[in-house]
Amino acid sequence: MNNESLVLRVTGRPVGRYVTRPALPARLSPRPYLHPVTTLAGTAVTELSPADHAHHLGVGVAVPDVEGHNFWGGRTYVRDQGPTELDNHGAQRHSAFQLRDPDGFVEELRWVAAGSELLRERRTVAAVELTDSAWALDFTFSLTNVTSRALSLGSPATNGRPGAAYGGFFWRARKEADTPRVFTADAEGEEAVHGRPADWLALVGAGWTLVFAGATGTTRRDPWFVRTAQYPGVGSSLAYENRLTVEAGDTLVRRVVTVVADGVLDRDGAAALVRKAVSP
Asked: What is the CB-side half-sphere exposure of residue 22 using CA atoms within 13 A?
């Protein structure tokens, strides 16, 4: 399947496998990902290439439009045409680990499309113990434009499909018989939380809870992309209403900390663990 992967551990317990060089077809926009990710009790909270969306790859970073190149996978949304199969897929290529420990790593990646490198990424991931039933995945990505021109990042929403502003950090959660509950500190339900910024957002399934938190001011300003009814997935949107421009040589940075907990958390429980997980 790949020739390099590692296992993340919290107090010696495996909680996630990171695959660096997956053997995937080009139309899935091959890229490193975390799967499976589990609670401390061993419950899986990610899915890999599910039947509903084969290009959903556990936890990672994916952008559907970088100067017209698809780093998300699957069809491309074309204005006035809809989802369209195009030969425009890019790939994220693992270059090296700058640091590699049982509880985390620092990785260098190259975002390549049509034979050219567009972006260079530094990805920093850490697994942190919070309690005897919860841990946190601390995920930072820094994307540097290595071309000589500005790069424009977009989403289906910026290309004419309202609300479909996926692109950036994305977590495909496990699909269960019942639709998961989703809430923030002051809103409840997919319609109420999707497309809005919030300091944190909780997704609650059958015996597990994920709490996503922007850990920088810039990240907290990005609206959340949320799906529960169609499939369970949460992302932080880089381009919700407008395209995001990265000038030549500039770097964009986002940091999302996700609490992974056994059991069903309420608002107070979710907020308390976020406070513990996100250092000021």
From this structure: 22
Give CA angle at 245 (232, 171), nearest 5°.
15
pLDDT in the model for residue 4: 77
* Distance separating alpha carbons of residues 149 and 145, to the nearest angstrom: 8
Do the Cβ atoms of 204 and 259 come closer than 8 Å? no
Q: Evaluate if residue 62 carries a pLDDT over 80.
A: yes
Radius of gyration of the CA atoms of the chain, in A: 17
Q: Which amino acid is at 112?
A: V
Cβ(134)–Cβ(203) under 8 Å? no
Least Cα distance to 181 among 210, 203, 211, 206 occurs for 203
pLDDT digits (tens, 9 = 90+) for 132-163: 999 999 999 999 999 999 999 999 999 999 99
Per-residue pLDDT tens digits for 107-124: 999 999 999 999 999 999
b (16+ CB within 10 A) / e for 61-81? bbbbbbbebbbbbbbbbeeee
Contact of 196 with 257, CB cutoff 8 Å: no
pTM: 0.97
